[in-house]
Structures are given as structure tokens and as C-alpha cells.
Inverse folding.
């Protein structure tokens, strides 16, 4: 069953988030079972909502890729994570992703630097 993952990580900065995304190399090595990733930085830290094909896919990514990278980067604390069964995935204009460009932060940062 597909799940929605909500993560809150107090104190994480934009530089730390960008470093994690760069190290994960999701553009060239996507997470197995990952469907959608949305991240926002607030005054409190990082807020993430992901959609995963299964809870097992998320847990494998968390333990085998995400947490090792955050440990290597010495990011302090641990995220608060909540998993819930996905009820619906709706995009009012699914073509918008194609029009604005599908890319993650590392690819976007690289293209802005040119």
C-alpha cells in the first residue's frame, strides 16, 4: 500500500538540505519506490512530504541511504517522521511539472550557476 511520509527536522538549514540532496544523487540514482518529494524550509527547520509505493521502500531508503548521509554530514538531531496510508494523490495540472521542469535541487543549483 502506498504511504505518505511527513518529516519535520528542527534546525536543518537550506545548506544542509542541499548537501543531503547532492550526496543522495537522486537525479542519477532515484530511490526505489519513491514517487514524489516535496520539501520546504521554515523558520523552525525542514518540512518534507513524500509519497512512497510502500512503507518498506521508505524504510529501506531511510536506513540504507538517508540516515547514513545525514550522519556523514554530521547533521545534528533526528527527524520526526510520520507514515500514513495514502488516501489520494491529485494534481490539478499534472502537465505543470513538465512545464516548470522536473529536477531536484542539485540539478537546479547546477543550472543556475551556469
Amino acid at each position: 500500500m502506498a504511504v505518505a511520509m511527513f518529516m519535520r527536522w528542527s534546525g536543518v538549514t537550506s545548506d544542509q538540505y542541499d548537501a543531503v540532496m547532492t550526496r543522495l544523487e537522486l537525479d542519477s540514482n532515484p530511490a526505489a519506490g519513491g514517487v514524489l518529494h516535496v520539501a520546504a524550509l521554515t523558520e523552525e527547520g525542514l518540512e518534507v512530504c513524500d509519497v512512497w509505493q510502500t512503507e518498506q521502500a521508505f524504510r529501506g531508503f531511510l536506513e540504507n541511504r538517508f540516515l547514513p548521509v545525514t550522519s556523514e554530514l554530521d547533521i545534528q538531531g533526528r527527524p520526526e517522521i510520520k507514515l500514513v496510508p495514502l488516501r489520494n494523490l491529485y494534481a490539478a495540472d499534472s502537465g505543470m511539472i513538465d512545464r516548470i521542469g522536473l529536477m531536484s535541487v542539485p540539478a537546479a543549483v547546477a543550472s543556475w550557476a551556469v
Remarks:
- The beta strands are 3-10, 34-41, 45-52, 80-85.
